C-alpha cells in the first residue's frame, strides 16, 4: 500500500481485547477515526486488514478467495512460525487447511460431533458436572471456580470422548496453556507442541495395539488401519481436538459464571427453570466472544469486501468480538440481553472452519451453568470484582474465579 508503512498503523492485537471481560471494543477509543475496515500493524511485521462488521466477517470466512493456510507467504501471523518445522507439525491439523484437503479430515470427525452423538454424551456430562460440584461443595467455601469446576468439566469430557487418560490432564493442560498464551516465545510454543505430539504419538500407538471404544480408537480402527490416515495425521487431529476442546469451553464456563453473578436475576431464573439455558448460552457466546484476537486469513485472489478492494497476498483478520457487537445487527449490542435471540453470532466462526465442537460446547455450557444455578443459588464473588484477573491468552478467560456461597 503506497505511502503508509506498518509502523504508522495501530498495533494489533489491542490489549483492551484481552483486558476487558465485558467491553472488548474499548480499544476503539484509541484508534484514529476510521471506517469499519481498517489496517493494523502486526507483531510479526507487516500489516493486515481488520474486519469488524458481521457481514464482512461472514463474507471472508465463507469465501474461497481467502485461505486459512498459515504457511502461505504473507499470512497475518500474531506469533512467528518456528524456523524449523517438521512435517508432523502440519499433518492432520485441518483448522489450517483449505478445501478440498480440509474436508477430507473434517468429514472423518463429523459423525462424532453430530447432535445425536453429543446427546449420547449428556449423561456423562451431567455426572461429571454433578461430581465436581459435589467435591467443591464438600470442600466448603471459598473456592476457585476455575480450578474446581470450569476447567475440570470440559477437560474430563474431552478426555473421555477422545480416549485420553484423564490422569494426564495436568500435563496436557499446562502444555496447551503455553500454546495458547499470547506471551509465549516461539521456542516455548514449539517445545510444548513437541511434548504434546510425543504424548499423543504414544497414545495412538497404544490404540493401534489395543483398540478402544473412543474417538481415537475409532479413527485408528476405521481410518488408520485401511490407509486413509497416517499415524502423524491422527496425532495432528487429536492435538487439535484436545487443545480446542477444553480450554475454550472452560473459559466460557468461568466467564459466563462471572456474567451471571453480575446479572443475578438471570442466575436465579436459571436455577428455577433450566429450560432458560439454551437462550442464555447463546447470548453468553455472543456477549463474551472468547476468540478475542479474531480469525486470520490471507487473500489468494483479489476480492472486494464491504466495498474495500483486497488484493491477493494481503492478510485479513476477522475480528469476531467486534462482529458480534455490530450495532447494525445486534441492537444495543453492548448490553447483555438474553431475549435478543442472538443466534446469528459468529462466536464459533463461520464457513467451512466453523467450530466442529459447537454442539458439545453448547451442551456442556447448558448443563454446567444450570447445575451451578440450581445447586448453589447463593453463589457470589469472594473478592471485589476488579480483583478478578484475566489470563493472557489468544482465547479470553479468567485466571481464577474466587467464589463463596
Ligand atoms: C465455547 C467453546 C468454543 C468456542 C468459542 C470455539 C470457537 C471456535 C472458532 C471461532 C473456530 C473457527 C476457527 C477458524 O475458522 O479458524 C473453531 C474451530 C474449531 N473448533 Fe471450536 N470452539 C469451542 C469449543 C470447541 C470444542 C469443545 C471442540 C472439540 C471438542 C472444538 C474443536 C474445534 C475444531 C476441531 C475446530 C476446527 C474446525 C475446522 O477447521 O474445520 N471447539 N472453534
From TrEMBL:
Entries under InterPro entries matching the protein: Cyt_P450 (IPR001128), Cyt_P450_B (IPR002397), Cyt_P450_CS (IPR017972), Cyt_P450_sf (IPR036396)
UniProt cross-references to Pfam families, sorted A to Z: p450 (PF00067)
Keywords: Heme, Iron, Metal-binding, Monooxygenase, Oxidoreductase
Presence of the UniProt keyword Nuclease in the record: no
Family note: Belongs to the cytochrome P450 family.
PANTHER family listed in its UniProt record: CYTOCHROME P450 YJIB-RELATED (PTHR46696:SF1), P450, PUTATIVE (EUROFUNG)-RELATED (PTHR46696)
Entry protein name: Cytochrome P450
